[in-house]
Design brief:
six-stranded mixed β-sheet, about 45% helix, DNA-binding, homodimer, six-stranded parallel β-sheet
DNA sequence: CTGTTAGCGCGTTCAC
DNA sequence: GTGAACGCGCTAACAG
């Protein structure tokens, strides 16, 4: 058994109240007592019991993180951002994986409730009706990162995927590309799918370029989707000068297949990615991509969350700016 | 305030003891009472308070993870492995970052002690004397992943870096390479540095190849180290046919610089990496590399830890096997 | 300046 | 089958 204030009190010949006071530096005790108590605490290797404190204060100082189960290139940065903000305010962070598709989101929420976390940040998991209901019933502040809930019912922080996709596509057009593919996107994903498709379409439309449905190759944002997309374009003799890939992994897949087929990027085909993951600047050619500020989103999200916990303020949804990072995977035709 | 068993007891007209019994399915109550209590619990949206339970049971069901602050390609998989094992046994996972060099390891340990975690897994942080002392004083089971402590004083699970480096180098020799560089390694890192240098040296020695100190370019395992290494070899006219890079990132750096200088990998220069990170199979050429089973290490480490918590058994250090994954970045000269 | 006491939410005897 | 009462480690009045 670990030592308690009771042990210290006994040794120091004072009451537990006094021990509590000096340990929390509340004042109202003599110098002598303070030194003695502190000395004994150190001798006894005392560590306060946060669980007991949580119980009496009805506050756990724990932030819960719920994320999908993936080994993606960038998630670690979101977590870094969250943990930094949490630590700064004296919070610890508890982590749960909700499965690849976030299918265990609700069970994670329940566990979080049992741990009495003071707030929750969840990312990359779309929250549907049932999840929203549970969240509301739990009455725990929550913020979503890089995703949303149905009907805007939960505050979120994310980039505007529609605008980002629009910008990526428009960038290609501005550089002289006309026949532009879209690769790797999921048509049923309400967050990162549909808005990007719409952004792509509208950018073409606005530039007076006809939309050809066959230029869109659906997928799961991963490497394989990119490879398959490229195979598809080649097999069907779809001549493109550029492809907008919905993730850097997908871009890598496209480029990989190009290398195999002796298609040179960007000379023969331009590629633009999405995410600005670390690798995008490490490969040859370096990949032009849309950058989402992951660390900042994690940090900001957690800051807002803690503010809302402390001041009981509502969290405001926020659209954070993306940037288009120009590198070497897009050829300028003009 | 969240509902408690007291609230349920009142509503159900039973004592809190009875409520506790049915909630924990301990038996010793009538069917009627059980149904009623369960119904009311659901109505009141009851969630048990794990903090309170921790207090009375003197067990928190929390596993602590301490890791360096890095956005690396593979760390997420270690965490995945840990969390999966933890969840399987009903444990939650609390996460702390100890800084880039693990400099906050001790403060993390103290926080973990305050949370009364039942066990700790720490990875990629070398634990020196002071850390060991603290660990011992805390009396919390702990396991190290992919690292060690001074004097073997804390159980660990890792691959044999010496053997892996030996194998990587020997593989190059077996394929006909004679003048082989070593890039990106830290000469003062007792875990991933010195053993790999020794492995590299001994492999050469054993193959009757003279060791040239100038072929070793030190660094920090990252992309830049690789780029700089290649620049160094070129500027100093050091003609190599192969380079053993101590990480895939470093390999990427080497390859990146090669591309810039019109050196073709593997035709002009062979490269072998370390880590088998996801990207190594996504780039062109795909990178031959040493694979460490990160997910498995996390999973196994956490399993052993939990076993040690439950049965109070000692954790046994383990060397897990690495594999050399052959891909396309090494030219076979023979 | 210091001690006593009452909970925080829950599990657990020990009676009945 | 069920309830009263105690204690886990700690904070927060309140009393002196």
């Amino acid at each position: 058994m670990a030592t308690t204030i009771k042990d210290i009190a006994k040794q120091a010949n004072v009451s537990i109240a006094t021990v509590s006071r000096v340990i929390n530096q509340l004042g109202g005790y003599s110098q002598e007592v303070e030194e003695n108590v502190l000395k004994i605490a150190k001798e006894l290797n005392y560590h306060k019991n946060e669980n007991a404190i949580s119980l009496v204060k009805n506050v756990s100082n724990i932030i819960g993180i719920i994320m999908p189960t993936v080994d993606s290139f960038y998630y670690s940065n979101i977590v870094n951002g969250i943990e930094d903000a949490a630590k700064k305010h004296g919070y610890s962070v508890i982590l749960m994986h909700a499965g690849v598709e976030g299918e265990n989101f609700k069970s994670c929420l329940n566990l979080m409730a049992e741990r009495r976390v003071d707030g929750i940040v969840a990312f990359s998991i779309f929250v549907e009706q049932e999840g929203v209901a549970l969240v509301k019933s739990l009455n725990i502040p929550i913020v979503l990162l890089s995703t949303e809930a149905v009907e805007d019912s939960i505050p979120y922080i994310k980039v505007d995927d529609y605008s980002a996709a629009f910008e990526a596509t428009d960038y290609l057009v501005r550089n002289g590309h006309q026949r532009i593919g879209l690769a790797g996107v999921s048509p049923i994903d309400p967050i990162a799918g549909i808005p990007r498709i719409n952004g792509y379409r509208d950018a073409l439309k606005q530039n007076g370029i006809p939309i050809e449905e066959e230029l869109i190759y659906f997928g799961d944002y991963n490497f394989t989707s990119g490879k398959k997309a490229m195979e598809y374009y080649i097999q069907n003799d779809i001549a493109l000068t550029a492809i907008f890939c919905v993730s850097d992994e997908t871009a890598l897949g496209v480029i990989s297949e190009c290398n195999k087929q002796n298609i040179i990027v960007p000379e023969d085909l331009s590629v633009i990615g999405y995410d600005n993951s670390k690798i995008s600047s490490m490969v040859t050619p370096t990949i032009t991509t849309i950058s989402q500020p992951f660390y900042e989103m994690g940090n900001l999200g957690c800051e807002s969350l803690i503010l809302s916990i402390l001041k009981k303020k509502e969290i405001l949804s926020e659209i954070v700016p993306f940037t288009l990072v120009e590198r070497n995977s897009v050829k300028k035709l003009l």
